[in-house]
């Protein structure tokens, strides 16, 4: 038999394969609450503008709440023949309230309906991402504040570069997640225009009030072009690209935690609550949460790529291709929120091993730049010459199997006769980090100033 929603011109129902490729109810039922909120706003507006009667609108609005509670209580029978959440809800509404249900779809199409539902869903996820990022940033600030002056090695090429502080390293991620937060807020503000009332693509001849439905659904204004309103999936693409960039940040941090928690580094100890054991090696404590966070960028960026490819080349206005937007966004959103929460939990619970950090901070000739700077500042050497002299001293220390501060003054003077005792003051890692007082540098005072600035923001 033909479809009860659109089957007027059809003599036969769809092939089973047609139904299987066409139906979205298996996933878009996640938008039930948004669909019902949109329909309730639409019905109230239709009554306010005199398109339907108050009593019909009343029946529709109450009936929709009944349907919503059936869905929330798991009593609702979803039907693949009814394709999607929109038609499933409307068909059930008809069973619950009868004839007035047929008036709900006046001046509306599934095209503006699905765009509205999906926007409402994505908007909630932007809000969830904002909360998740704020919580993660607060956890990082607590780590940074506690360890503002704990020294550790800073790396380039994963080779010892210059000493930094634990707080400084944590604050680097605060900056990254802070930009993610700002992207979330920007995108949310940009997407908050209502598609409802764009109808199929051209608008409607009914005297609808799009301002009224926009306000009822918390949108800032109605979208200004009906063709664009039903075709726009920028908001989903911005969600996915914002999620992708954030997932890259999460992945880089996760990678550091994996390295830092190894027996070779011992920079951090992850809590038991965020670690797992091995079924064969009794000594193991594995950073699985960090590894999974590191991996999530794969599927999140995959979703971003997938939807970009779905949207490219689609002529205006709606095409069924766009139904493929939801699974990508749902999966990316679920995994983004999970990754944020897992990272927040790990950061809150982890212990920085201050002694290991300090021991590592001094190895690998990490204060060589401080020595070269001293040669410039005190002896007046050109930096290139100072670099060369320091390089020779590093080679000497390496051949003696010691660190720079362990070289004797005679050793030093054999490379450059004017070096004095005073040089040793700059060879400690504490002196090194304390001297990096330039704005945004690693000196503990600078780190504390940034912690303070961020605390006022989040
Ligand atoms: N299930 C559809 C989707 O997710 C709803 C819109 C259908 N519109 C249409 N003209 N067939 O995109």
Automatic annotation (TrEMBL):
Subcellular localization: Cytoplasm
Species the sequence originates in: Ruegeria atlantica
Enzyme superclass (EC): lyase
One GO biological process term: L-arginine biosynthetic process via ornithine
Family of the protein in this entry: Belongs to the lyase 1 family. Argininosuccinate lyase subfamily.
InterPro entries in the record: Arg_succ_lyase_C, Argininosuccinate_lyase, Fumarase/histidase_N, Fumarate_lyase_CS, Fumarate_lyase_fam, Fumarate_lyase_N, L-Aspartase-like
EC number: 4.3.2.1
Cellular component per GO, a single term: cytosol
Main location: cytoplasm
Pathway(s): Amino-acid biosynthesis; L-arginine biosynthesis; L-arginine from L-ornithine and carbamoyl phosphate: step 3/3
Catalysed reactions, as listed in the record: 2-(N(omega)-L-arginino)succinate = fumarate + L-arginine
Lineage top rank: taxon: Bacteria
HAMAP family xrefs: Arg_succ_lyase (MF_00006)
Full protein name: Argininosuccinate lyase
Pfam families: ASL_C2, Lyase_1
Thylakoid recorded as keyword: no
GO function terms (MF aspect): argininosuccinate lyase activity
Keywords, comma-separated and alphabetical: Amino-acid biosynthesis, Arginine biosynthesis, Cytoplasm, Lyase
UniProt keyword Lyase present: yes
Domain Fumarate lyase N-terminal residue range list: 8-302
């Amino acid at each position: 038999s033909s479809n009860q929603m659109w089957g007027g011109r059809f003599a036969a129902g769809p092939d089973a394969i047609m139904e299987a490729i066409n139906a979205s109810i298996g996933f878009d039922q996640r938008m039930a609450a948004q669909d019902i909120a949109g329909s309730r706003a639409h019905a109230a507006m239709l009554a306010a503008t005199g398109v339907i009667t108050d009593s019909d609108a009343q029946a529709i609005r109450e009936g929709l709440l009944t349907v919503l509670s059936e869905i929330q209580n798991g009593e609702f029978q979803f039907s693949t023949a009814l394709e999607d959440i929109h038609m499933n809800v409307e068909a059930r509404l008809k069973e619950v309230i009868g004839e007035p249900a047929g008036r709900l779809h006046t001046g509306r199409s599934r095209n503006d309906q699905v765009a509205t539902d999906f926007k409402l869903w994505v908007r909630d996820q932007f809000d969830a991402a904002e909360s998740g990022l704020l919580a993660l940033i607060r956890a990082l600030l607590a780590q940074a504040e506690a360890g503002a002056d704990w020294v550790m090695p800073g790396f380039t090429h994963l080779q010892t570069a210059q000493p930094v502080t634990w707080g400084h390293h944590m604050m680097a991620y605060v900056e990254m997640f802070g930009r993610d937060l700002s992207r979330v807020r920007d995108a949310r503000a940009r997407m908050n225009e209502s598609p409802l009332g764009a109808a199929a693509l051209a608008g409607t001849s009914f005297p609808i009030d799009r301002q009224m439905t926009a306000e009822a659904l918390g949108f800032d204004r109605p979208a200004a072009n009906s063709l664009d309103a039903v075709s726009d999936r920028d908001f989903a693409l911005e969600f996915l690209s914002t999620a992708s960039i954030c997932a890259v940040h999460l992945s880089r941090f996760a990678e550091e935690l994996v390295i830092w928690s190894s027996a070779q580094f011992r920079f951090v100890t992850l809590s038991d609550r965020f670690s797992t054991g091995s079924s064969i090696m009794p000594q193991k404590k594995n950073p699985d949460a960090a590894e999974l966070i590191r991996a999530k960028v794969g599927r999140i960026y995959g979703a971003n790529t997938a939807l970009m490819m779905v949207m490219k080349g689609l002529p205006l206005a709606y095409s069924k291709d766009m139904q493929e937007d939801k699974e990508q966004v749902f999966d990316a959103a679920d995994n983004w929120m999970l990754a944020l929460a897992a990272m927040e939990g790990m950061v809150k619970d982890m212990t920085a091993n201050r002694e290991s950090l300090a021991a590592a901070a001094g190895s690998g000739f990490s204060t060589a730049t401080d020595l070269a700077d001293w040669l410039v500042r005190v002896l007046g050497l050109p930096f290139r010459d100072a670099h060369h002299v320091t390089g020779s001293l590093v080679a000497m220390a390496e051949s003696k199997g010691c660190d720079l501060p362990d070289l004797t003054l005679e050793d030093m003077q054999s490379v450059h006769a004017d070096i004095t005792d005073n040089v040793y003051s700059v060879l400690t890692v504490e002196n090194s980090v304390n001297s990096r007082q330039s704005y945004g540098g690693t000196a503990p005072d600078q780190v504390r100033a940034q912690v303070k600035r961020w605390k006022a923001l989040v």
